[in-house]
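Hello forum,

I keep getting stuck at the same step: I have a sequence, I want structure tokens, and every attempt I make locally crashes halfway through. Rather than fight my setup again tonight, could one of you with a working pipeline run this one for me? It's a single chain of 223 residues.
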Amino acid sequence: MLNNDWDEILKVVFEGEGFKKFYSLVEKEYTNKTIFPPKDYIFNALKLTPYKNVKVVIVGQDPYHGVGEAHGLSFSVQKGIKVPPSLKNIYKELENDLGITPVNEGDLTYWACQGVLLLNAVLTVEKDKPASHRNLGWERLTDYIIKTLDKKEEPIVFILWGNFAKEKKAFITNPKHLVLTSAHPSPFSANYGFFGSKPFSKTNEFLKNNNSTPIDWDLKNKK
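Reply #2:
Ran it on my machine without issues. Output:
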């Protein structure tokens, strides 16, 4: 299904009767309504960032709900789509933190391929209806993913922006890992603790201190 080590790790969830029943509901939604991301992209974050490669986890809420935006990575949009306000603020903080000038696109695949798991807590959404699939059943899977990552021997940085993401903090108990929390980068809350939080430099400093290659956050360097 995912063609990497997540298949074996998540087998216990994917093969459970509860998940199968839930996923048939999701498939029904795709048949009857306009749902994002496109079906092939639902598990894009897991496909691009195998378990063994995960160094950083950035938890988002649910996919963007506008046409052509979501492609299965938190905060990221497909090529050719205008950079959304929250991502613009992430770029602003990146410039403030590491001096990296923003790019004019919002595809964060380059980060995902370096070991940044861009995981939304909820993996699907109905067109123009934010949070419409919250409590549908995705949380059981994404909670399990966080719990599994918490057991990892190699130190990970968990970046939790906003109250929705901070709910996952309860599942991160391994003292080896670093948890960075702040306000959400949305224009409604970015001024209340997101700006100035320096998550990118803190992440790279932690990775270097734990003998792990830091993340190249500069999207201009992607091949």
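The longest strand covers residues 56-60. If your local run keeps crashing, start a new thread with the error log.
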